[in-house]
Specification:
By secondary structure, this protein is mainly beta. Helices cover 6% and strands 53% of the residues. It has helices at 17-20, 65-70, 130-135, 166-170, and strands at residues 23-34, 40-50, 76-83, 89-95, 101-103, 109-112, 115-118, 121-128, 144-158, 176-193, 196-200, 207-214, 221-226, 228-231, 242-248, 251-252, 255-256, 260-267, 270-275, 284-291, 295-303, 307-316, 321-322, 338-353, 356-373.
Length: 379
Amino acid sequence: MIDHHDITRDAFMLHGPLGHMGYDWWWHSFTAQDALTGEDKPFFIEFFICNPALAGPEPVLGQLPANRANGTLPSSLMVKAGCWGEDHCQLHRFFSLRDVRLHSEAPYEVEAGDCLASETILRGSISITPADALAHPEWMCDAGSLSWDLTVEKQIAFNVGYGASKPLRDAEAFAMYWHAEGMKTRYKGTITWNGRKYIVSPKKSYGYADKNWGRDFTSPWVWLSSNCLVSKRTGKQLKNSVFDIGGGRPKIYFVPLDRRLLGVMYYEGKEYDFNFSKVHLLVKTEFSFEELEDEVVWHVRQENIHAAMETEIHCRKADMLFVNYEAPDGSKKHNRLWNGGNGWGTVKLYEKQGEGLILVDELEATHVGCEYGEYSQAE
């Protein structure tokens, strides 16, 4: 069962060895409307914890030249927030983990200063001046001011199953784990971006919430998701549907499994599972990424013993940013990690009948969250 909610997978995971060499993040993305014009604007908010067992009195930033020179590992809570569009921006605010109030059991809660993330609430603010952004490249962020006050309602989950179960978490089998407690999420509240107010409405937020944790990232790194889907068969927007695709090159016990994706289509209550870790489904996946002059394009074809899904997503380069993270070992291998929130494209869903495929529906997808990147240096 894909839509199996499990908030224990949203709990804080950095115990034991991962406390010294691990990250844990809670990601949220959604669309808001300009309070004056009604125009759509996509935003994101993330709480990212790194190496809590190494916490000092101040946040420790791995990209600080002195820390890179002497091998000091990073340790902090990084609150990341920003927007997509031609004024795309990512802002980072760092806290020492000694100053973070953390409820580590489910339901999770992370709080520092005026910033709070939980299963049902998101609050906070970041303000970075141009002078500070220029003077602190180790912050890996832009300049701007963003504040938010939101409620969160996670409606449909993508539970990847045994791959992120407690036995495999305890064994630290994978380098990177994933759980999407809210692959379809409704957000409600307000955003203020550089002094301009935006309204977040549940029915028009097209929201998403997931969680990643582990000791390292993946290359290539793929993510595509949307719950703003229109059926070409009926011409109507689907009210109870969402797709989610993620992965790239997972590692199990440090051994890479090349070009594997986890994927799902929840189509008006019916589940189509393209999870490579479920061996009985005999999942096959092909994917590619194109960088054109003005846009980037994802092509994904997934197949199991029952169904197939073909996904093609586009996003304008002008609307995207290169999202910045440093790994727990202090390295920053992803320097061209394309990240967007207003992609568009099509999803063709088929069911198998004998040797052939029957088209269930072709969907027009908008407000697509999208990501792709490969390491810029050898592993």
